[in-house]
Amino acid sequence: MLNDILLVFIPMFFTVDPIGILPVFASLTQGLNPQEKRAIIFQSLVTASLVAVGFILLGKLIFHFLGITMGDFMVAGGVILFCLGMVDLTTQGKTRRGVASELGAVPIGTPLVVGPAVLTISLMLVSVHGLVITLIALFFNIAIVGIVFTFSDTLMRLLGQAGSRALSKVMMLLLAAIGVMMVRRGIIEIMSGMHAF
Fold this sequence. Notes:
Elements: H1 2-16, H2 22-28, H3 34-66, H4 70-90, H5 100-113, H6 116-129, H7 131-150, H8 152-157, H9 161-196
Helix pairs in contact: 1-6, 1-7, 2-9, 3-5, 3-6, 3-7, 4-9, 6-7
């Protein structure tokens, strides 16, 4: 069983990418006090867990009922990430403080921690390794994200203030690019589905 957990944990870890989303988290929570950050971290982990578990259990049924394809889902998630990245790049970042109570749910919990890529691979892993193994690996990955977020200040401090700001902006640019990529892949997915008919 441990071997199966590792087989699911490893690809999911690289999909969640806790280290990669650290600068994004740091940028989104810049200027918030420790209590606000703790609340956001807790909210993001709960949101990510609920979205992932709910999607794993009900995703295919919901998609079928609403007539939504995975391509549609990828396009929607990509647009959200693109808009998030562009807003951060074109503002000073302080405008987010008014909605700090919502950051944990959207966009940090989803689609940053648990987005279309994680949800997609989760469904694939369930079909291969089973529900229980996939859920265990998922919760381990979300716990790692929580640890990384908790020590985000220390990790980002190693980069320095100027370095962390520069890295945050670069990551937001990459985030916007990832959003475009997801839209592109979603469109390809939609087009391939149309050709199948």
